[in-house]
Specification:
There is one protein chain. The chain contains three helices and seven strands. The protein is α+β, with helices and mostly antiparallel strands. The protein has one domain. Strands 1, 2, 3, 4, 5, 6 and 7 form a seven-stranded antiparallel β-sheet that branches. The radius of gyration is 34 Å and the shape is elongated. The mean pLDDT is about 85.
Length: about 200
């Protein structure tokens, strides 16, 4: 038959055995902190990767549009030549060795200021694009801020006829650097003498 002392001991097992005490031990606390730190580190890493991917995608989209604009600038100069007293289609572009975009040289066009091409010299030496307060990209803009982008246009002669080049290839290279990794977006398009 149980005595009153046995009932007291069963009622309070924590007093007899220290292992029955409520609360966390040091090892349990360290394990919980480690799991928490790993979870926070994983979430932080995922957020950082997402932000980096967003910035890269944004820059790549800007580079795509800057390359497309480069094509349009050369195409516009070709069309302007055709509409302006039937000048040769590459006048001011690559008609003679002194022209800014002559084959083998890099050039750029600043359509906000004028529709004239400028020689960069060797490939990779074109100036940095600027962006004004309204979001337009160009060179030597009033109130323009330097961006991370450079754009260069190089032309290659593909076909000739009795009047000279009849087809050229336009290569637009948009370069930028974010941190220590240089990036490039290259696009190529052919242009014909439709005169």
């Amino acid at each position: 038959m149980p005595t009153s002392n046995d009932k007291k001991n069963k009622a309070r097992p924590t007093e007899r055995h220290p292992s029955f005490r409520r609360g966390f031990t040091m090892v349990e606390s360290l394990v919980a902190i480690t799991v928490l730190v790993l979870a926070v580190t994983g979430v932080t890493s995922a957020i950082q990767t997402g932000i980096s991917s967003y910035i890269f995608s944004k820059n790549q989209i800007i580079a795509f549009y800057l390359a497309q604009e480069g094509f349009e600038q050369i195409r516009n100069m070709r069309d302007e030549n055709a509409l302006n007293n039937n000048r040769p289609w590459l006048t001011g572009i690559a008609d003679a060795g002194g022209d800014p975009c002559y084959f083998g040289f890099a050039c750029y066009v600043n359509p906000i200021v004028s529709n004239i091409a400028y020689r960069c010299g060797l490939p990779g030496s074109c100036p940095v694009l600027q962006q004004d307060a309204s979001g337009f990209f160009g060179y030597a803009l009033a109130g323009g801020v330097n961006t991370i982008f450079t754009r260069e246009i190089t032309l290659t002669q593909i076909a000739t006829d009795a009047n000279g080049p009849s087809e050229i290839s336009i290569l637009v290279t948009v370069s930028w650097s974010k941190g220590t990794n240089p990036k490039q977006f290259k696009a190529r398009e052919n242009l014909l003498n439709w005169q």
